[in-house]
Design brief:
Elements: H1 3-11, H2 22-25, H3 39-76, H4 78-87, E1 93-94, E2 99-105, H5 106-110, E3 114-121, E4 126-135, E5 144-150, E6 153-157, E7 164-179, E8 184-188, E9 195-207, E10 212-231, E11 238-259, E12 264-265
Antiparallel strand pairs: 1-12, 2-3, 2-11, 3-4, 4-5, 4-6, 5-7, 6-7, 7-8, 7-9, 8-10, 9-10, 10-11
Helix pairs in contact: 3-4
């Protein structure tokens, strides 16, 4: 089985066919399941994996650079470092402006959707957050949230990066195949019309112990959807199609993050 067949079996399993007579679809001699090429999903999956690998490599490089800098400081100014270590018990930690975080949204995990994000702060007030969700499986016959999506966000921090209050602007792009009850299943039209849109968000990051942080965020905005509605049965057929312009909640998260880059102490 090649990569295309594997993704086809995962993502398009139980996808119906478009026929005008839904009664014919339910006859045993008629098979409504059809195969669909998924080259675009293969490319997206490969790109997603490549992004994760690249982000991880950059994070490791950043951490190596910080470790080397800290070693030089200890060698050049041992007295200063010693005094800093003695005083730093009751002082705050200053975040290195160039810092990487690795994150996951617990709300999505509770819904059965795997997700992973990388956030990078590149100045004293700005950072970029890149979350990716991927869920190719069905939790049950009547409940599934199959999705491949990305929602990058530019964040402006009110005091210092990666802690406290922030405002964000995000965009989103998502392929989806969703069923939440026994009646209907919703899928982006023909597997070629992903959801897209943009929005604004507000959030707060609470500093945890060591390198752990907790983030709470909520966003509102716009999303354009073009989707088919299927009967939520095995090989169920399409019985309607809709185009919708949605305004409302576009982002929600209770996120735990781990800092990959060391902080500078003062």
């Amino acid at each position: 089985m090649n990569v295309n067949d594997a993704i086809k079996n995962f993502f398009y399993k139980n996808k119906g066919t478009k026929i005008n007579n839904t009664t014919e679809c339910k006859k045993p001699e008629n098979n409504c399941f059809y195969q669909k090429k998924s080259n675009h999903l293969t490319k997206i999956t490969v790109c997603w994996c490549a992004c994760i690998v690249i982000c991880g490599s950059f994070a490791l490089q950043a951490q190596t650079v910080v470790n080397i800098d800290n070693e030089h400081k200890i060698i050049d100014k041992p007295d200063t470092i010693l005094q800093t270590e003695q005083i730093s018990v009751d002082t705050n930690i200053e975040i290195n402006h160039k810092t990487w975080l690795l994150k996951t949204n617990l709300l999505y995990m509770c819904a059965g959707v795997f997700n992973l994000a990388a956030e990078y702060s590149f100045s004293n007030r700005l950072s970029v957050d890149i979350p990716v969700t991927y869920s190719p499986y069905s939790i049950s016959r009547t409940y599934k949230i199959r999705t491949l999506s990305i929602q990058p966000e530019l964040r402006w921090w009110m005091k210092e990066p990666l802690t406290g209050h922030f405002l964000g602007f995000h965009t989103h792009l998502a392929f989806y195949n969703i069923a939440l009850d026994t009646y209907n299943r919703y899928q982006d039209k023909d597997g070629k019309t992903p959801l897209w849109g943009a929005g604004f968000s507000y959030g707060y990051v609470l500093r945890g112990k060591g390198k752990w942080n907790f983030e709470f965020t909520l966003g509102i905005g716009y999303a354009h959807l073009n989707y088919d509605i299927f009967y939520n049965v095995d090989n169920g057929s399409v019985y309607n199609s809709k185009i919708k312009n949605y305004w409302g909640l576009t982002k929600a998260g209770v996120t735990v993050s781990y800092r990959l880059t060391k902080n500078d102490e003062k």
